[in-house]
Amino acid sequence: MRQYDPDLTPPWKRQRPAPEVPAEPDLVVEEVTTGFCGAVIRCEKTAQGPTVTLEDRFGKHRVFPMEPRGFLLEGRVVTLVRPRAAAPSAPQRTASGSIAVPGARARVARAGRIYVEGRHDAELVERVWGDDLRIEGVVVEYLEGVDDLPAIVDDFAPGPDARLGVLVDHLVTGSKESRIAAQVTGEHVLVLGHPYIDIWEAVKPSSVSIPAWPAVPHGQDWKKGVCRALGWPENTGAAWQRILSSVHSYKDLQPELLGRVEELIDFVTAPQG
Known about the structure:
This protein is of the alpha/beta class and about 270 residues long.
């Protein structure tokens, strides 16, 4: 049995569906009936259906129903529709993984401090935890080696309102570093460390695009030995910049370093009492 199209309008006279265009603010359209041209100011839901308010170049406002094929956009007939509500964005995070606080001002520096062994250590901590440290008001300073730590602790005179945290390289049982750490550790001084010979090793090899950190024979300069083994120029400053530039967040660091730094920050920012 033949099926008949209930719409008796000849196909060549039927209107094609107009494309739907979200009525975003500042979109300039022309209302087809009145010829009023203006920029979208707002959309509203009313009892009669959705409406759009347009503002012309003289600042005049007019409200129109958002009917199908009701507007011209750059000469084309369109149907305006209400813009979709933006999906809630996930909270931004700092390089350390903490929730970022947009617009937060740096806190006045605390009396407490975190000391690290060298400039490279300080730069790495700043790269990953810098935002957190500024909000907490924690200053990071660096030693030129751990041998001077006892004298530095004495001069600092740590107390309940001025705690001192120290991050030490190669802090393993029986090492010189472990003996010095035991000498200065106290109620208001916390010395923590990682097992790596140098802070370079605390960066994951995959982040630096190397298979592993090479083993350097005892007695050789470790950093220069690493450069030689990797085929890099023996310029340790340039090598460090190459390594540092590969660090974008906590995900590029070994967990043995991450936990220690977080613990030190918690220690120096803990409330008195």
